[in-house]
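writing this on my phone so excuse typos. first protein, seq and then structure
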Amino acid sequence: MSLSKRLFPFFLPRRLAAIGLSLTLVSAGLAVPETAHAEGRIRIAEQFGIVYLLLNVVRDQQLIEKYGKAQGLDIEVDWTQLSGGSAVNDALLSGSIDIAGAGTGPLFTIWDRTYGRQNVKGVASLGNFPYYLVSNNPKVKTIADFTEKDRIAVPAVSVSIQSRFLQYAAAKQWGDKEYARLDKYTIAVPHPDATAALVAGGTELTAHFSNPPFQNQALENPNVHVVLNSYDLFGPNSPTVLFSTEKFRDENPKTFQAFIDALNEAAQFAQSNKAAAADTYIRVTGAKIDRAKLLKILENDQIEFTTVPKNTYPLADFLYRVGAIKHKPASWQDYFFEQAKAVPGS
């Protein structure tokens, strides 16, 4: 039985949704580009997992609206959820969204491709989180143990932060020329579906480069184990960020600043009150996760909620070195807007 048929129960609904999104984006791309809307509206795309918890807090407490009113502005906020950096990048470039939430991998890709044109840059970090590559194949102890019989789930093949982490690990293992060696084993599957398939077993999907809380839920199964921790590659780092176009930032300065202020308040709230943050995540996302288990994840010392980007540059430097991006950033400040440069990031 083929892989697609055996994974049918797990991710067909979202795959169909993704197809619908792709058709929409193609249509948008063929149409006349959307004109910039006036101050007072912002459209935000998030993905799956507690790495987007700051956005959950912003939404739950209506913080953008709060800071907009402080400037005499009534801001309309639209929220959407996508899966994978490719879909998020397409949505941003088509004019369907204003703020993109994705990994630093997709940020580097779109920053490079829009350099000197739309000038997409980072807005803020969403925090520091370890990402685990997990597997239910007992023979896979390290990345060197993957074979043609294995398939590794990632949000987006090649460009997602999980894919970029895997490429970085492959380069450390076999050299820069072999950085894409494991790409042929990766398939694009949303985190919830990949977790369900991995835990259930019985398919060619034997690994998942995940994020919290999905990696923690998978590890509750005794047949699932950690193959790689992203912190082993870079140390603590900001894998997930928010980014936007220069046009949106310049034409909507009050709305943009309200968004920044909202994020900063959300970060202080989440970092200082993990219990309330857990309640917010469950309430906003509707996640079916035990509150005590979620709180344990949030209280992990390796997780920090902050808008300050940390340790992002090593991956950017690597991607330039292997030719995945054409422009070499001199520092992390090259791919973040000025608002982020006021803080001691990296």
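second protein below, same order as before
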Amino acid sequence: MTAHPPQDGVATGPQPGGRPSANAGARPVPTVDVHAHLLIGEVEALVAGLPGLAEARELEARRNGPASLAVSGPMVRAVLPKATDVERRLAAMDAQGVDVQLVSPSPSHYHYWTDEDTAEKVCRLAAEATAAHCAQAPDRLRGLGLAPLQHPRQAVRALDHALEQGLLGVEISSHAPGRELSDPAYEPFWARAAETGAILFLHPFGCTLDERLDQWYLSNTVGQPTENAVALSHLIFSGVLDRHPELRLIAAHGGGYLPTHIGRSDHAWSARSDAGAGCAHPPSSYLKRLYFDSLVHDPHVLRALTEAAGADRVLLGSDFPFDMGAEDPVGALRAARLPDADFHAVRGGNAAALLRLT
């Protein structure tokens, strides 16, 4: 594992690549991107032609609108080599100055419309394909599988299978049809994840505001942060994080709108009996039990995120290789002008500890 030197004007002490270091002889901290995706053709081949796929695609089309779909199709085709070929992935990582990626299946592979048998096959294929992809560069790639949130009884089994493949955990969406993350049916899943120390990566796919967001790619720009905020609020206000304090959950997109607007949640928790009934502490306190990626596209928001959650709870994320990602995630982090220690913690120190790279 090669650690890339920090950007000019950031580091202040001995660094890798010939720079002096405040901790001479210490192993350099790798740069770690926790938000990177894999496209898996085997999963799409499995579901092709099944009852329910056409309806799911019609819903996605309504939610995104024709103009967005016309852009997204060519974009996905253009990034397909980076999203499937290990050598192209590694070359792109080198260009970005990224040492390690945590690779998760594209959220388009969730297929939460499938029946129990198909859902199990989807998750097994996704886990095995991700493990095989990462095994081609084991010093640079770590991976996550999927869990079928539409069938809560299967979620523990999918998590266990992913861990058996050598993956670090699973990726989940912000909800499943008819179920929020506060649903009691998920209790065994949260318990198993906490018990095993598995990583859960919360990454929404789609937004239930539907046609209200079907222009100008609002389905993503507004919808994804909204879904993050709703999902995290369900976990907090329902007491999931009280019952399972050892959960190791990373929220994509900086947790959406919630971390920077958490004061409203705190006020409701203290002012209203219905808002404060489910969790033991003010909602803002739970931010320090969660992890957040840095993909917020605004240096001021990134600074606010580190202030709200703590710099030790923020991890570098790029959404590689899609167009809503950051082509230069380290540069985006540098633009936030964090204190030197916080910069290096977010750049890789926090993730190296969480993913147990060292």
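Residues 32-354 form a domain with the TIM Barrel fold (CATH 3.20.20.140). thats all i got for now
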